[in-house]
């Protein structure tokens, strides 16, 4: 049987102390989405589990980029045989 040496680090590892006041807080990337439905719509993000409430047609809500794709793909109406029919409920806001 081989004789193994015990591993010993060459330098002692120091415990790092992080001051929460000095750490910059990064907000997640957000996109603006517009409701196309003339009703109050409550949507839960499938990735972040955040709740977004649109107050009617034209309402603009900031949505986490991780949730945006799923929200933008929501449609009203049924699609036959996996087709792409149905009216979109939301669109991406295009600021001018």
Q: What does the model show?
A:
By secondary structure, this protein is mainly beta. It contains one helix and seven strands. Strands 4-1-7 form a three-stranded antiparallel β-sheet. The chain has a two-stranded antiparallel sheet with strand order 2-3. Strands 5-6 form a two-stranded antiparallel sheet. Strand 2 and strand 3 form a beta hairpin. The radius of gyration is 24 Å and the shape is elongated. The model has no long low-confidence stretch (mean pLDDT 81).
Residue windows where pLDDT falls under 50 for at least 5 positions: none
Q: Average pLDDT across residues?
A: 81
* Secondary structure tally, helices: 1
Overall outline:
elongated
* Radius of gyration using CA atoms only: 24 Å
Gap from first CA to last CA: 74 Å
Please outline the major beta sheet.
3 strands, antiparallel
Question: What is the subunit organization of this protein?
Answer: single chain
**What portion of residues is helical?**
under 10%
Number of DSSP E strands? 7
Structural class: mainly beta
Strand order of the largest sheet: 4-1-7
The ordered string of helix (H) and strand (E) elements is EEEEHEEE
User: Which percent band covers the strand fraction?
Assistant: 25-35%
Give a short overview.
The protein has one helix at 65-72, and strands spanning 30-35, 41-44, 51-54, 60-64, 75-76, 87-88, 90-92. The protein contains one helix and seven strands; from the N terminus they run E-E-E-E-H-E-E-E.
List key phrases describing it.
27% strand; mainly beta; single chain; 96 residues
């Amino acid at each position: 049987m081989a004789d193994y040496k015990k591993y010993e680090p060459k330098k002692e590892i120091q415990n790092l102390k992080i001051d929460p006041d000095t750490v910059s807080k990064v907000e997640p990337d957000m996109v603006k989405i517009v409701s196309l439905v003339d009703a109050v719509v409550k949507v839960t993000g499938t990735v972040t589990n955040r709740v977004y409430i649109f107050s009617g047609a034209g309402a603009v809500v900031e949505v986490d980029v991780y949730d945006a794709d799923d929200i933008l793909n929501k449609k009203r109406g049924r699609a036959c045989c996996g087709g792409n029919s149905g009216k979109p409920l939301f669109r991406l806001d295009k600021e001018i």
